[in-house]
TrEMBL record:
Upper taxonomic lineage: Bacteria, Pseudomonadati, Pseudomonadota, Alphaproteobacteria, Rhodobacterales
Protein's UniProt name: Cytochrome bd-I ubiquinol oxidase subunit 1 apoprotein
Membrane topology term: Multi-pass membrane protein
Natural source organism: Aliiruegeria lutimaris
Cell compartment(s), UniProt: Cell inner membrane
Family that this chain belongs to: Belongs to the cytochrome ubiquinol oxidase subunit 1 family.
GO biological process, one term: aerobic electron transport chain
Source species, domain of life: Bacteria
Gene Ontology MF: a single term: metal ion binding
UniProt KW Iron keyword: yes
GO cellular component: cytochrome complex; plasma membrane
Amino acid sequence: MEIDVVELSRLQFAMTAMYHFLFVPLTLGLSIIVAIMETVYVMTNRPVWRQMTKFWGTLFGINFVLGVATGITMEFQFGMNWSYYSHYVGDIFGAPLAIEGLMGFFMEATFVGLFFFGWDKLSKRGHMVLTWLVAIGSNFSALWILIANGWMQNPVGTEFNPVSLRMEMTSFFEVVFNEVAQAKFVHTVSAGYVTASVFVLGVSAWYLLNDRHVALARRSIAIAAAFGLASALSVVVLGDESGYAATHSQKMKLAAIEGMWHTQPAPASFTAVGFPDMEARETHYAIHIPWMMGLIGTRSLTREIPGIAELVENAEARIKSGIIAYDALEKIRAAGGEADEAVTAQFEEHSADLGFAFLLKRYVDDPREATEKQIALASNDTVPTVWPLFWAFRLMVALGFGFIGVMAYFFYRANWRGMTFPRPALRLAVWMIPAPWIAAELGWFVAEFGRQPWTVDGVLPTVMSVSHLSVADLAITLAGFVTFYSVLFVIEMSLMLKYIRKGPYLDVPETEQWMAKHEHRLRTHDGNVPGATPAE
């Protein structure tokens, strides 16, 4: 199989996935923020909160629709570009995706329609409930997708059937409560909440800089800062949990992110900065923080974190064990599934390493015929390219701590400085709008690129997962996807900017009715109504 086909297939899926993830985090976060705003509206009955709900809900709707359009094509790619992957693990991977479509997406899509067209047909409380159902549906969809992705990172609750030559699920409970999947879910949705908070903060700051919709903008900043600060702190804490999970399930990814070429005495230090060198197998000019990596990765001072060199040696041993499993598998197939007990026992003993034997398929058709040199090459293939992982992770972390600082500052100004914000801070908020998307894309790059050379970690190499397509087929479809997704991105940006410039709905009749009641209360109480101002 031509390696160019593999690389082009990876490039096409990476492009579609990263385009799609431009829409996902904003959908996740805005759904919750809009639900919070409508809850405040129901509690206070103040029209400004209804205006806020409708305005940010409109931007949510635009983003949601285009996110759906970009997500549908990804699922088609599993059949088109990754047919062997779909055949090999479809019984496991397909289940959470089917549940997501039947439960999460249908729930989300149904209530989105009611959100936009039910304002005058439902009671305030009824409309608030369905807004929360939209938010729950959005996050529920993310849960099942991340369960599927988490299984690719840590394939638990499954076993290989030597007769059907496919992976089969043995425990749905283990797949759902996979520690990697759960850590990815809470980390990813928290990142989405930060993205939406920064977006709301930046757009509101732009309104204040232009002296437009001041009441809406100030209240939106207050909501975004409080929600964003809690979410940004959660991202850091839950990201730490992902690192701890990787210590158990993806040791090579963790070592590559850290640029840890050799096992260090416990507790390992964390490399703050440095320049990883793949050829020399060392990190030049490294600055270390003592003990930190050991505490993050093992929650102890005594357990070691294995380095890349030691993990390569372990991979070589597992490849040799996998060759034994492959040989037993071929004998079972030749016997039509009726092999003697000794062969079956031999396969069961080494079956956990079968995927490592498949790494040799890049160099030889029959892994049993591999030379020592080819085994060494395959074991070295288990090391992803270190420097992009090393720097992508550190830039993502730096942005994460930056979000905490910015959100804490605006939270302080909103709560203890009477919602007054210096113009330089407002300009920073506007310029910061793209930052959470950059952090989110870097996070997905670390998660997916760091898993290489595996499609399913330790089970199925990427080189075996692709369909039998030509380079021309992939080049043409890649160009088509780039064009299609670029058009959708331009449409998204145009619509978002149009409705941001247009500003919120005025809801004139309700506003006038509320103001009349408000003025009556002022006259009745001689103006002594706490916190009551015409701006409210």
